[in-house]
Specification:
Oligomer: single chain
Radius of gyration: 41 Å
CATH class of the largest domain: Alpha Beta
Number of domains: 2
CATH architecture of the largest domain: 3-Layer(aba) Sandwich
Largest sheet: 8 strands, mixed
Order of helices and strands: HHEHEHEEEHEHEHEHHHHHHHHHHHHEE
CATH topology of the largest domain: Rossmann fold
Bound molecules: guanosine-5'-triphosphate, magnesium ion
């Protein structure tokens, strides 16, 4: 294969590869349908389009499909002239497909060229994953007939397999009966064939003599109304089967003759192949973008859920950032321990009154590590930890509530083994570690800065811990905001801490240290909340899949379309030499030239009188394939 066909094959392989990685894990409106569609398209490409494109000269594969008991196996046996597939009275009978071909064509089917998912077998089998190959010279070279399981019995495997087999057909030989020709399921199949312009011939079986005029005509009208006007319709009257279960030759002769003519002539075979192949490619091109849209919808939904969760945790980080600098933490335990730390209430009041003498008083108060530093650090830790837990729980609750508000969010939450509506079970440990680390960093910070200062003596007097906790207190009250009865006392608290630090470092340095200490705290809080948020992200990531896939599907579809329009130009330029006929344009291949259905007046005689098809003048003589 050269030129445009090769480009088309490459583009279709790319489309196939892109469709293979499509995942639609969320149940959104329409996603079940697109999930099936993506899988169908891959199958259709693997089972039919790609192998057919690669071996355009392979025999024409006619798949005999239809309802259980319609007489498919009987028809196949009768066409071949011997029993190759067991017919039966038990429904459904055929479980594994049987493919009959001329011995010379065996090599086309023994490999995995078509239906690569089915193992080849040479004997009768009931294994639905295998394809029984029968070589019989009762079939002309260039034609293969496949007896498929039914499309509508209670056996789900049969229905699935039949759909797969029909999708792999060059030609559908669709069997229905006079009693069942208006059933819904067969029509669904016929409509899908019409939708993808597959070559279809309908065999209307077991028509009672008195209905020979009316019923085929009615079915013909139904077909015409549903886009199958160009498809041949073969009317087979009710007859007795012989001891082998075969129909009389006369009853099936028109079908046999028509198939023989298709098989014998390379051009008409190619026309059928191209009608189905081009129809299949056109349908794939039509359906591919819908799959990409479904992928986009999943992505957009996941993005929205991600934004909701992110926002909730960003709010937690913001709240903690505010509450660790507006004085909120300087209450209860922290306040009480601070008061103990700087001295009695009395001393504290004295400080408030005479703030100017603070430095001397403080420095003379503390000798070495002041008592109560440890308690204060603990109080700061537990105050911070309580704040963090509150906000982590609140963030989890908000994120969960926003996810619960829509179905996709609920689906993801259902997949989580954890309760995501509250902080993670190990949050307490993580928070305690983060706080410990922060306190350590603050102490390192004051130690590094303090040792370099001239006022080293004061620093030594307070100790690293003393200066460190004072810095924490300053951080917690940077923006003020304390109200009510605590104002005086807490306000004083901060001032004391501030003065202590200024006495050691000077006021420029205090501002810088407080800023650094606050940044250290904020970044730890942010990391802590991120690891909480990660629980939500993990669920999203598990559902996300390949981010490029929708674009890859679209790009591949566009490439296929480009190839098709390229080959349209090519075949327009060389219409006369094309085997596809004078109007051989992709997407508008010539329909089969169907024999027109003609009713032969029915006469009761010992011979079967059937609806006969008008044959070309050089049509085959009755009774044989040629
Ligand atoms: N008298 C008569 N019997 C028929 C005719 N066609 C089929 N039968 C019988 O109807 C029954 C079902 O036929 P099968 O050929 O097994 O039907 P099928 O469509 O292959 O059915 P599944 O394999 O179940 O999908 C068998 O007993 C056949 O002998 C016919 O034209 N005339
Ligand atoms: Mg059967």
């Amino acid at each position: 294969m050269a030129g445009p066909e090769q480009g088309l094959e490459t583009a279709l392989v790319a489309l196939r590869d892109a469709l293979t990685v499509v995942r639609l894990p969320l149940e959104l409106p329409g996603s079940a349908e697109q999930r099936i569609s993506a899988a169908d398209l891959v199958k259709q490409l693997d089972d039919y389009v790609l192998p057919r494109l690669a071996t355009i000269d392979a025999p024409l594969l006619a798949v005999v499909g239809g309802s259980t008991g319609a007489g498919k196996s009987t028809l196949v046996n009768s066409l071949v002239g011997r029993r190759v597939s067991a017919p039966g009275v038990i429904r459904p009978t055929t479980r594994a497909p049987v493919l009959v071909h001329h011995a010379a064509d065996a090599h086309w089917f023994t490999g995995s060229r078509v239906l690569p998912g089915l193992a080849r077998s040479t004997g009768a089998t009931t294994d639905t994953r295998s394809l029984q190959l029968v070589a019989d010279d009762g079939i002309p070279p260039g034609l293969a007939i496949l007896d498929a399981p039914d499309i509508d019995s209670v056996v789900a495997d049969n229905r699935k397999l039949a759909a797969q087999l029909l999708a792999a057909a060059d030609l559908w030989l669709f069997v229905t009966s006079a009693a069942r020709y208006a059933d819904a399921v067969p029509w669904d199949f016929l409509l899908s064939a019409a939708d993808r312009s597959a070559a279809v011939a309908v065999v209307l079986d077991r028509i009672p003599p008195r209905a020979m005029t009316e019923v085929p005509a009615h079915l013909g009208r139904l077909m015409g109304d549903r886009g199958l006007g160009g498809s041949p319709l073969f009317a087979v009257p009710e007859t007795d089967v012989d001891t082998e279960g075969l129909l009389p030759v006369a009853a099936i002769q028109p079908i046999r003759a028509w198939l023989a003519r298709l098989a014998a002539d390379q051009a008409s075979r190619a026309a059928v192949v191209h009608q189905t192949l081009d129809g299949a490619i056109a349908a794939i091109v039509r359906r591919g973008p819908d799959v990409a849209v479904a992928v986009d919808e999943q992505r957009a939904t996941l993005d929205r859920l991600r934004a909701d969760a992110d926002q909730s945790y960003a709010e937690a980080v913001r709240t903690v950032a505010v509450q660790t600098e507006d004085g909120t933490l300087l209450r209860g335990e922290v306040l009480a321990r601070w008061q103990e730390f700087v001295g009695t209430g009395e001393f504290f009041r004295a400080l408030e009154q005479r703030i100017g003498r603070l430095r001397d008083r403080i420095t003379s108060m503390f000798r070495g590590e002041p008592p109560g530093t440890g308690d204060l650090k603990v109080a700061v830790s537990s105050g911070l930890e309580a704040l963090l837990r509150n906000e982590a729980d609140a963030a989890a609750e908000r994120a969960e509530a926003s996810w619960l508000a829509n179905s996709a969010g609920r689906q993801l939450l259902d997949r989580s083994a954890q309760d995501l509506g509250r902080a993670a079970p190990d949050f307490g440990d993580q928070a305690a570690r983060a706080i410990r680390d922060w306190q350590g960093a603050v102490l390192d910070l004051v130690a590094d800065t303090g040792m370099a200062k001239r006022s080293r003596a004061r620093f030594m007097a307070l100790g690293v811990n003393g200066v460190g906790v004072a810095l924490m207190i300053v951080v917690f009250a940077q923006t003020g905001g304390i109200t009510g009865a605590e104002v005086g006392i807490a306000g004083g608290t901060t001032v004391v801490a501030q003065r202590v630090l200024e006495a050691v470092f000077g006021d420029q340095a205090v501002r810088r240290l407080a800023t650094i200490a606050k940044e250290e705290l904020d970044s730890r809080v942010s990391a802590l909340m991120s690891s909480e948020l990660l629980r939500y992200h993990r669920l999203l990531d598990e559902a996300a899949g390949d981010p490029e896939v929708a674009d890859r599907v679209r790009a591949a579809v566009a490439a296929v379309q480009r190839e098709l329009s390229g080959s349209a130009t090519a075949s327009t330029e060389s219409t006369t030499s094309s085997t596809r006929g004078p109007t051989a344009l992709p997407g508008s291949r010539p329909a089969l030239e169907p024999p027109t259905l003609r009713q032969v007046p029915y006469e009761v005689s010992d011979d079967v009188v059937d609806a006969e098809l008008v044959e070309e003048p050089d049509g085959p003589p009755p009774g044989g394939w040629r």
